[in-house]
């Protein structure tokens, strides 16, 4: 029952007060309040303190009710006390409950008024009849009818008629749970008989609204069952109706589920109505607890073993003694309020070993949290036991970490756990994973991962033992006989018969460890590459007693080696071809572009050239230069860089260099020469692009006319200064079919030095181009006694890191 109603609401109801968080959305689960897991002794002390406070508050409440009677009847305190006792006896209530009702009637707090208003709205009753439908009267009527009912069906009808219809509900179902978490419809009202017949039994594992409340051990609300998509009884009749599903349990155990159906979508319920529904669920729990449990077949299954019906903890104790694993029989331990706070160890079986070394007698009869406080810690074992006891759903887990306190030192171990409920008892079985079991598990996994199968063959008796992995390697069923070593050739490729014969000769006759590889022909047509290793085991008389060994599937390794061998052969051939190609390219480049050029016969002009090929022969580039005296007496000076590396770049360089030489004979200026060279690159080569700087020097007037095609401009060194020439307009060669190039004219003075270079002299991967050019100017302005020394100095102090070719052409006016 709901118990006494206190002014301002029941403080023990566990529901949020006004101003608290909003009710959860329909379809979500509302968890029970967290009670924490402390040591049992601490809990008992706190319980005693709470009981003392409750007793004091109860005495104050009774005194307050006596004061109300004195005021209403005009009698003395002693007469008021006798009147309170007589009224409580007549109503079948305790003095504390009656005192709470008297105070509620006198106070009429706002929560009670809200509940009455909700009742009037739900049933469309006139306000004049509202006092007859008070919450206390309806709950008391439902309780009386339920307690006097002979079965759960009558309980369901009483709950709907007296308590739920005034709340707007149209149907109610009472489910009971089985040992296997199945659900059986024990009572219903508002649903048709056909509907009830279809839902009389819900097997384990079927997700329904009632099962979600059972497994979650919490109230579940649905604003609309159809919107939630959860099947349940009566969904076809009320598809848009709301549902409230509440677990019905006492003492930590859930005996069943109360499911309430509304015809319309359900709005959030007031707190007073929620308390009423919780009180009805508790009433159902007490009713189901008093009824005998159905036990189909007269037996149940606990921990994987059949247990005959009609017995409780003694039957489980007898069963646990027959187990080879440690086991404990646990029964619930409740506090004075009927709340589950611990489990008592009723029996420890014969194979039980306490981690702390205590005898079985010191554990029998103790509370679980007192004997093993670490069960409420990180392992969550206590919560697992509590859940199994509440729902009946068994729990199985492998390699669970268990912790025990031995002299305040936590000791952890791995174990396989089995927890099952039978009646009002719980059977806890565990199997500790010792060192041998752990090593055996590791060996099994290693054999599976390595595709290794072990065998042992008794040569004298003829017995052969295979492990499971070896059957898989041979493609044989476990029911088929193993293959003897002497018959191994019959399962191998004919070409490997000699190899197997030599292997058997070494193991069986020479009695030495032997190993060989062969191709196994399986019955399913699959060919496997297998390596077999065996060692002889001598008997007591010195003769051959047995042979032990292993087969390993090396098919993946074999085909990997084959693929690697073929890849190495192809790679070696490719490397040889690449080396020959680079060698020919380098010879072609050196034949056309020698690292140094002989002195140029030009009056008043000193010309020097440096060419530095790339460090890697595989990066032979297309850098080129030229310095030649034309028939007119003028001097052609140029450097260029063809994009790319290899034979294509080298041949492209030859085309552009020879074309520029032939075009320069016409006497055209540098801008026109670059325009013609652009046409050559675009039309007469295969997608060739290049940069270049071209200059025509007149020794008579000491004048240089020059133009650039996407190339860095030349550097002029005059006295102690060095500067780069202006950045004239000009696209790189081959980019467009037609292009025009801007020209500039520079008059050189005696002692001036002009430097033309390719980007291999200055480029760095982590430095901007203008910073690299600034570094070049710094080096160029340093004094030098000759042009040759100046060019060598530029190459020596170059910080380029692109592994590209480098060309430098220096011109000094005398």
UniProtKB/TrEMBL annotation:
Residues 42-103 form the ANTAR domain. Keywords: Hydrolase. SUPFAM superfamilies: GAF domain-like, PP2C-like, PYP-like sensor domain (PAS domain). It comes from the Bacteria. Residues 606-813 form the PPM-type phosphatase domain. Residues 12-33 have a biased composition (Low complexity). Residues 1-33 are annotated as: Disordered. Residues 514-566 form the PAC domain. This is SpoIIE family protein phosphatase. It comes from Streptomyces exfoliatus. The lineage of its organism: Bacteria, Bacillati, Actinomycetota, Actinomycetes, Kitasatosporales.
């Amino acid at each position: 029952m709901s118990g006494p109603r206190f002014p301002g609401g029941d403080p023990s109801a566990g529901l949020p007060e006004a101003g608290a968080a909003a009710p959860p959305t329909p379809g979500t689960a509302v968890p029970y309040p967290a009670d924490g897991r402390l040591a049992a002794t601490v809990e008992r002390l706190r319980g005693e303190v709470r009981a003392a406070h409750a007793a004091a508050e109860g005495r104050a409440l009774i005194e307050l009710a006596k004061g109300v009677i004195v005021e209403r009847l005009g009698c003395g305190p002693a007469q008021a006390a006798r009147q309170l006792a007589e009224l409580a006896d007549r109503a079948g209530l305790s003095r504390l409950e009656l005192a709470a009702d008297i105070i509620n009637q006198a106070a009429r707090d706002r929560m009670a008024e809200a509940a009455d208003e909700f009742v009037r709205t739900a049933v469309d009753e006139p306000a004049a009849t509202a006092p007859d439908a008070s919450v206390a009267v309806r709950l008391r009527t439902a309780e009386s009818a339920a307690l006097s009912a002979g079965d759960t069906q009558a309980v369901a009808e009483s709950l709907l008629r007296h308590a739920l219809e005034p709340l707007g509900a149209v149907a109610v179902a009472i489910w009971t749970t089985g040992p296997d978490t199945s659900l059986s419809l024990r009572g219903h009202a508002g649903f048709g008989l056909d509907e009830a017949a279809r839902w009389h039994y819900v097997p384990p594992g079927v997700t329904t609204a009632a099962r979600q409340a059972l497994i979650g051990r919490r109230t579940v609300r649905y604003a609309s069952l159809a919107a939630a998509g959860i099947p349940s009884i009566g969904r076809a009749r009320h598809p848009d109706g709301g549902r409230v599903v509440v677990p019905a349990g006492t003492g930590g155990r859930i005996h069943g589920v109360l499911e309430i159906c509304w015809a319309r979508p359900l709005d959030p319920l007031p707190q007073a109505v929620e308390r009423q529904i919780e009180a009805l669920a508790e009433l159902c729990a007490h009713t189901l607890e008093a009824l005998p449990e159905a036990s189909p077949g007269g037996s149940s299954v606990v921990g994987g073993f059949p247990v005959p019906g009609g017995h409780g903890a003694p039957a489980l104790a007898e069963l646990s003694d027959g187990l080879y694993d440690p086991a404990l029989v646990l029964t619930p331990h409740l506090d004075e309020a009927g709340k589950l706070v611990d489990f008592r160890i009723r029996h420890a079986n014969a194979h039980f070993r306490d981690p702390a070394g205590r005898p079985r007698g010191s554990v029998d009869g103790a509370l679980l949290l007192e004997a093993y406080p670490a069960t409420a810690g990180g392992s969550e074992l206590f919560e697992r036991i509590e859940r199994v006891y509440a729902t009946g759903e068994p729990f199985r887990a492998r390699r669970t970490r268990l912790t025990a306190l031995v002299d305040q030192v936590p000791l952890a171990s791995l174990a396989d756990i089995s927890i099952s409920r039978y009646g009002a008892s719980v059977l806890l079985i565990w199997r500790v994973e010792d060192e041998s079991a752990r090593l055996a598990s590791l060996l099994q996994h290693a054999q599976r991962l390595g595709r290794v199968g072990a065998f042992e063959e008794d040569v004298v008796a003829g017995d052969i033992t295979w492990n499971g992995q070896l059957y898989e390697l041979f493609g044989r069923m476990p029911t088929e006989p193993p293959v003897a070593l002497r018959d191994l050739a019959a399962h191998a490729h004919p070409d490997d018969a000699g190899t197997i014969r030599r292997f058997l000769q070494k193991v069986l006759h020479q009695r030495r460890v032997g190993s060989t590889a062969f191709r196994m022909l399986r019955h399913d047509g699959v060919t496997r590459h297998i390596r077999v290793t065996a060692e002889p085991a001598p008997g007591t008389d010195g003769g051959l007693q047995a042979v032990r060994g292993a087969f390993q599937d090396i098919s993946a390794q074999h085909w990997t080696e084959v693929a690697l061998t073929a890849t190495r052969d192809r790679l070696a051939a490719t490397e040889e071809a690449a080396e020959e190609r680079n060698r020919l390219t380098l010879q072609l480049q050196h034949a056309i572009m020698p690292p140094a050029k002989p002195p140029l016969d030009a009056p008043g002009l000193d010309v020097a050239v440096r060419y530095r090929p790339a460090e890697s022969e595989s990066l032979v580039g297309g850098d080129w230069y030229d310095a030649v005296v034309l028939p007119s007496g003028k001097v052609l000076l140029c450097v260029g860089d063809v994009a790319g590396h290899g034979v294509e770049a080298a041949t492209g360089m030859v085309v552009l260099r020879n074309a520029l030489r032939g075009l320069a004979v016409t006497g055209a200026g540098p801008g026109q020469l670059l325009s013609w060279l652009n046409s050559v690159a675009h039309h007469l080569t295969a997608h060739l692009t290049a940069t270049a700087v071209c200059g025509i020097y007149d020794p008579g007037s000491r004048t240089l006319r020059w133009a650039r095609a996407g190339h860095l401009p030349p550097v002029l060194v005059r006295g102690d200064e060095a500067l780069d020439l202006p950045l004239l307009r000009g696209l790189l060669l081959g980019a467009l079919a037609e292009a025009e190039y801007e020209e500039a004219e520079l008059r050189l003075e005696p002692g001036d030095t002009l430097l033309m270079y390719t980007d291999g002299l200055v480029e760095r991967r982590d430095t901007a181009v203008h910073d690299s050019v600034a570094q070049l100017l710094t080096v160029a302005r340093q004094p030098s006694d000759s042009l040759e020394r100046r060019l060598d100095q530029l190459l020596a102090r170059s910080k380029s890191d692109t592994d590209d070719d480098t060309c430098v052409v220096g011109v000094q006016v005398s």
